[in-house]
Structures are given as structure tokens and as C-alpha cells.
Amino acid sequence: MAWITLLIAGLLEVVWAFAMKQSDGFTRPWPTAVTIVTMIASFALLSLAMRSLPLGTAYTVWTGIGAVGAFLVGIVWLGEAVTPARLAAAILIVAGLVTMKLSGPA
């Protein structure tokens, strides 16, 4: 259950990062509100996952999901560049996440 909680926390990190971008420096009320609510929910779920997962594993996976997710959202919805170096970096992050999952507790 901790891994599912951590996955949801990571996905919420993607949502708040995107909403923060859309908030235009916290000048737009709705994206700002979405940022704050999803940020709190993401942190709360991360803290719940950390009850049974090691700190290093939970935090690395959470930030990795957020980083790769934000990267994909940037490409798909914001028209950000797709370059071989950026793709390689994302693949390395995913490889690190898989390694963390396989090397930690179930």
C-alpha cells in the first residue's frame, strides 16, 4: 500500500508543478489554489508512505516521478523541446526509480 500511496503522491507532484507554471508567479487564483491543495496532498501522502518505506527510497521515487512527469507534461501540453539528451536524462531517471524499487522493501 505504501508504494501506491507514493505513486499517487508523485503524480500529485506533477499536478502541482504544472499548476504552479500555470499560476504565472501565483498571480492567477485558480492555478494557485490547485498548486497549494495538490502540494499539501502530495506532501501528506509522501509522509504516509515514509511510515514504511526508507527515507532515501521514498524521497527519490517521489521526486523522480515528479521530474519525469513534469518533463512529459512540458512536452505534451507546453510544447517544450524533445532532444536526445533530455530523453536520455529521463530514461536514466526512470532506470534509477526502478532500481530503487527493486532494491528496497516490498
TL;DR of this structure?
The chain has 106 residues and is an all-alpha fold. 81% of the residues lie in helices and 0% in strands.
Notes on the structure:
With 106 residues, the chain is an all-alpha fold. It has one domain. 81% of the residues lie in helices and 0% in strands. It is built from 4 helices and no strands. The chain has helices at 2-22, 29-49, 55-78, 84-103. Helix 3 packs antiparallel against helix 4 (84-103). The longest helix is centred in the middle third of the chain and has 24 residues, at 55-78. The radius of gyration is 15 Å and the shape is flat. The N and C termini lie close together (10 Å). It is a multi-pass membrane protein. Keywords: Cell membrane, Membrane, Transmembrane, Transmembrane helix, Transport. It comes from Methylobacterium aerolatum. It is found in: Cell membrane. Its main location: membrane.
